[in-house]
Amino acid sequence: MAFTLSSSRLIFLCFFLLLCNGLSSSSSSSIKHHRHRVENHNYKEALTKSILFFEGQRSGKLPPNQRMTWRSDSGLSDGSALKVDLVGGYYDAGDNMKFGFPMAFTTTMLAWSIIEFGTLMKSELPNAKTALRWSTDFLLKATSHPDTIYVQVGDPNMDHACWERPEDMDTPRSVFKVDKNNPGSDIAGEIAAALAAASIVFRKCDPSYSSLLLQRAITVFGFADKYRGPYSAGLKPEVCPFYCSYSGYQDELLWGAAWLQRATNNPTYLNYIKVNGPILGAEEFDNMFSWDNKHVGARILLSKEFLIQKVKSLGEYKEHADNFICSVLPGASFSSSQYTPGGLLYKMGESNMQYVTSTLFLLLTYAKYLTSARTVAYCGGSIVTPGRLRSIAKKQVDYLLGDNPLKMSYMVGYGPKYPRRIHHRGSSLPSVTTHPTRISCHDGFSMFSTQSPNPNDLVGAVVGGPDHNDQFPDERSDYARSEPATYINAPLVGALAYFARS
Predict the structure, then answer these.
(1) 3-state secondary structure 279-309
(2) Does CATH place domain 33-499 in 1.50.10.10?
(3) Which tens digits make up the pLDDT trace of 375-405?
(4) What is residue 21's predicted lDDT score, i.e. its pLDDT?
(5) pLDDT confidence of 35, banded at 50, 70, 90?
(6) Residue 386: CB partners within 8 Å, gap ≥ 6?
(7) Which positions are catalytic residues (predicted)?
(8) Is 468 one of the catalytic residues?
């Protein structure tokens, strides 16, 4: 697209500015669920709680200022099986496992949230940075040995056979790694992206730490690119079906290169993207963004280089980004996305809310880029303004916080009605403070099978969400809908910061 201001484009620009100032278009066929509206939401409170959640997922030695006080130290010998220090990091969801792949994606999305919307977080910005650093400190440990990345701590099958607090876990803390003989370009590419993105966050407040993150990102990306292969090929029994690399490793290589380009502005990475982009799947269409599939995220990220940095050679990524936007517009003839009767984006039956939060983050971020470039998205002959994208994102956030048929918040601790029996070991069992006696592997199942509310609120946790008919049974055994995860919350942090800005 040319950037000349012809008379017709000048007229359009005036029209566009009007739209951005509050007259954004709305499709008559869009999903309407205002009848479910409960009240104006306190986005600042939701933001605070979405960040607090990460303290409940901490592994390792907890600091004196730990606010989620029903949690205690855990996993203090992690890594000892291979004589490495792998203490720290996050448990990914409701279990006691440390899966490196989703943890790295969580890290990238926390960093991206801060990069795009950190100035709007105000008093919560230090807490967001703390949550990010808890993860990057662990990723630095996991990548401290050349050509080796420690990608997982714990035996998932044995862990999932138990229902016990992380403070009590006695299942094997097995350590799994990738190296040049058993490569893992996907997880290495994601870790490189995470470290590069985080280096931007800490650049001004902690330059030495930022430099360490960036240099490690460069090294890890070099490993990912040189020794190519999916990590689940060599570790299938350990990582599948939990976090298999279903989309391959090509998306993570493009994603990692895109973040290194943004962090370094080094022409080496721009050239890498130009040469390898088509090979790594730039032409492939995807309308899903997740811990496994980064194609859409990379396209949105690279569209900024075209829109704002004026890197004309990357114009195709703006087109790809527009295609993604078109695919999620509710009610549009060209949309390929499904919505529940109540208006929630519905991608998958298991942990659907992760796709909701990742998508609405991309909508807000792309709206920011389009606004900065004073342009719009194009869907065939239709114009989609940044205001329209923000409106769609807001409806998704509001649904999550309670504007839905059940009038239920899907964030624990937010609003008068929220999930009380989430699929989460530490939350569902009495804390060490109130029950100092150890709860063994199988003893915890007596609590698991009850209808009693969880004794500990994992405040800020967003669960998998309702089914395709907006129904939510709130049952502990229903992990597909009742389990929280770090990668559900991470993109939501940025979105809530945007809506809490006023």
Answers:
(1) CCCCCCCCCCCCCCCCHHHHHHHHHHHHHCC
(2) yes
(3) 999 998 899 999 999 999 999 999 999 999 9
(4) 38
(5) low
(6) 20, 24, 366, 367, 368, 370, 371, 376
(7) 423, 474, 483
(8) no
Which two tokens mark 54?
Answer: 């990460």
Catalytic hit among 124, 286, 470, 474: 474
Tell how far CA 454 is from the center of its chain.
25
8 Å CB contact between 191 and 102: no
Tokens at 380, concatenated:
């065939």
Give bridge partners of residue 378 from the DSSP assignment: 383
Q: The whole model's pTM is what?
A: 0.92
Residue 103: half-sphere exposure toward Cβ, Cα within 13 Å: 29
Choice among 286, 305, 470, 483 that is catalytic:
483
373-409 burial: b if 16+ Cβ within 10 Å, else e: bebbbbbeebbbbbbbbbbbbbbbbbbbbbbbbeebb
Q: How large a percentage of the chain has pLDDT more than 70?
A: 91
Does 443 participate in catalysis according to the annotation?
A: no
- Establish whether 474 is a catalytic residue: yes
420-450 burial, b for 16+ CB within 10 Å, e for fewer? ebbbbbbbbbbbbeeeeeebebeebeebeee
DSSP classification of residue 31: -
Rounded mean pLDDT, 192-220: 98
Per-domain boundaries in the chain: 33-499
Of the residues 116, 423, 424, 457, only one is catalytic, namely: 423
